[in-house]
Design goal:
The complex is a heterodimer of chains A (255) and B (338). By secondary structure, chain A is α/β, with parallel strands linked by helices. Chain A has eleven helices and ten strands. The chains are: A alpha/beta (255), B mainly alpha (338). The A-B interface holds A 69, 71, 90-93, 95-96, 101, 103, 107, 109-113, 115-116, 119-121, 123-124, 127, 134, 145-146, 148-149, 151, 167, 171 and B 2-4, 7, 10, 209, 212-213, 215-216, 219-220, 222-231, 332-333, 335-337. The complex binds adenosine-5'-diphosphate and magnesium ion (MG).
């Protein structure tokens, strides 16, 4: 892959992917008080893709996800989901629309049981659908079935991450937002989580994956965006980003 | 391998609850022996009133960490609404001797009063507290005190400053004897209603979709939002339930004591708040238990001729709890499985 395809933001790889993006950010700016956290983010996620956002701590990855899931609303710019402007739609309605998330830090309801956590994930859906999808999540994560009646807070870190992902799947999202799912997990568990991400994608869920573990993320993703202080500084096919010199230096720990 | 194929809710009534039930039954017997029949029936009523009010304090605190100081006055409004329904639209003056008619009147009274009070709770939350949801903690607290004054003044404007008598629809002094103890039918009814409401609340919070949403919101509001929970709706619903229960407490008060007065919510509210803290604020079982403990302290003080000291005793308990066990007797959060 040539340099040019890597360095043409906002969506170098998109040419190959025809049609309307499932999710699109157009020049999104957000603020925390006076802190200008996102300074014009534009990106696209197409159906059936795994797209990764990588970048150092504080680059604005989590904030980008909050602009998408409705916990923050952009002051300038637009968020389009399935062609519809959802910039100012409240978070709980976006779940119904098809955006599911396993948030940063997992945010398991620690005093609800594992089963209840999953039922909360399916809050927007009918009891019958929830019962079916609980089985689907248990098939994906057999550990969770064993722990169904335990409080979420008693699970290990890896199990909590599985629960967070399973819970996010319960709303049958069209796009699944994952914020640092590998954080704090042992290398074996990291491998497992990434294998699961592939499998979920293969079953037809589009994924936007935020990671600090850039190497792993670029291995599993189709395309990626590199964020730095609230801006997209690089975008392209994952394979090309893996070869990019700046990415290798800054994020893959090579010299 | 798969040991738990079917997912069922854990059985509630297993042997593990026997000691708890036995402890409560034992406490009741001791209470009766200590205070005698008249104060025992006062204890049951006052305990039920405090417990029902305390539930509202504890639920609202559990979900938005607000001590809703207007809650005692919501209870007071409940008494006036019940009193008004009985003497106004129903035009009752004395006791209803036909048991079937009495039952119909009581069911209607509870339904209508609790619905009106629930709506009042939603209204208060919407206009007094929601605008301050993200303000510093002190702002909603001061507002709650303001709401308390507003409710008292409105009721005073309508019903005047002195106690208003309500029709006594239960035949007074109808009692029966059990094992040498004399118990009033009204007492049995009041305790049955209070216990039924508390069980219904536990089942609702513990087992329904909306109850789960309430517990999730109490634990992590943002995460609950990401599950699709409408936070505003859930908080409004919490106020509905808490205020409806305070309304039930107001009815119980009117049925038993036969009057309502505009400032009756002040001490009742403070005592119920103490009960909630005693049981562990945020914990519904604890609030119910705390209500009966505080009720007992009050009547025991009266029985032994120290009724002027009952407030000292109750607030002394509050201070002791805050010093030695700030999380209360059962100290967990609303988020907990009951
Ligand atoms: N709640 C907040 N209040 C104020 N500033 C915040 C808040 N959350 C994040 N920030 C700031 O916004 C920037 C982006 O943060 P974040 O999106 O969390 O980064 P990342 O997820 O890439 O580590 C950082 O400078 C961070 O300090
Ligand atoms: Mg982050």
């Amino acid at each position: 892959m040539s340099e040019t395809s890597v360095q043409a933001p906002p969506a170098a790889g998109a040419a190959a992917r025809n049609g309307q993006p499932l999710l699109e950010l157009q020049d999104v700016h957000t603020y925390y008080g006076h802190i200008h956290a996102l300074q014009g983010i534009s990106l696209e996620v197409h159906r059936d893709e795994i797209v990764t956002l990588i970048g150092a701590n504080g680059a604005g990855k989590t904030t980008t996800l909050k602009a998408i899931n409705g916990l923050l609303h952009p002051r300038h710019g637009k968020v389009l989901f399935d062609g519809r402007d959802v910039s100012h739609v409240p978070a709980h309605e976006l779940v119904r629309a098809g955006i599911g998330q396993a948030p940063e830090g997992r945010r398991i309801f620690s005093r609800l049981t594992v089963l209840e956590n999953l039922q909360m994930g399916g809050y927007t859906r009918s009891p019958r659908e929830v019962a079916q999808d609980v089985e689907r999540v248990f098939a994906l994560f057999p550990r969770l079935r064993e722990r169904a009646r335990q409080n979420g807070g008693t699970l290990s870190g890896g199990e909590q991450q599985m629960l967070a992902i399973g819970r996010a799947l319960m709303c049958r999202p069209q796009v699944l937002l994952l914020d640092e799912p590998s954080l704090g997990l042992s290398p074996i568990l990291v491998q497992q989580i990434f294998a699961i991400i592939r499998e979920i994608n293969a079953q037809g869920t589009t994924i936007l994956l935020v990671e600090q573990n850039a190497l792993q993320a670029l291995n599993v993703a189709h395309r990626g965006y590199v964020l730095q202080t609230g801006r997209v500084v690089l975008a392209g096919e994952a394979a090309a980003l893996r070869q990019d010199e700046m990415v290798r230096k800054a994020y893959l720990g090579e010299i | 391998m798969q040991t738990q194929r079917s997912i069922r809710l854990p059985a509630r009534l297993d042997g593990s609850q026997l000691p708890f039930v036995a402890a409560i039954a034992g406490s009741l017997v001791v209470a009766y022996a200590l205070v005698g029949p008249q104060q025992f029936s006062n204890f049951l009523t006052i305990g039920a009133v405090y417990a029902l009010i305390a539930l509202g304090y504890t639920m609202v605190y559990g979900i938005i960490e607000l001590i809703n100081f207007a809650h005692g006055d919501v209870f007071m409004v409940g008494s006036f609404v019940a009193l008004w329904i009985l003497s106004g639209p129903l035009g009752l003056h004395g006791s209803i001797d036909n048991p079937a008619l009495l039952a119909v009147v009581l069911v209607g009274l509870f339904l209508v009063t609790m619905l009106i009070l629930g709506a009042l709770g939603i209204f208060i939350e919407r206009f007094a507290y929601r605008p301050l949801r993200n303000a510093p903690r002190l702002a909603p607290l001061i507002t709650a005190i303001g709401v308390s004054f507003i409710l008292q003044n409105i009721m005073q404007a309508f019903f005047g400053p002195s106690p208003v008598n309500s029709p006594q629809i239960f035949t007074l002094n109808a009692r029966f004897d059990v094992a040498g103890a004399s118990i009033g039918y009204l007492n049995v009814f009041i305790v049955a209603v209070a216990v039924a409401l508390m069980i219904a609340l536990q089942l609702f919070v513990g087992r329904t979709r909306l109850g789960r949403a309430m517990r999730s919101t109490a634990q992590d509001r943002e995460a609950a939002e990401l599950m699709g929970v409408d936070i505003n709706l859930t908080i409004a619903f919490t106020f509905f339930i808490g205020s409806a229960l305070a309304g039930a407490a107001g009815i119980v008060w009117v049925l038993y004591f036969g009057y309502a007065v505009f400032n009756q919510g002040f001490y009742a509210g403070l005592f119920a708040f103490t009960a909630a803290v005693l049981g562990g604020i945020g914990n519904t079982t604890g609030a119910a238990l705390g209500g009966f403990v505080i009720g007992f302290l009050q009547v025991a003080a009266a029985q032994y001729g120290y009724s002027r000291w009952s407030e000292v005793a109750i607030f002394g308990v509050l201070v002791l709890v805050l010093v030695f066990r700030p999380t209360g007797l059962l100290g967990q959060q609303l988020g907990e499985r009951a």
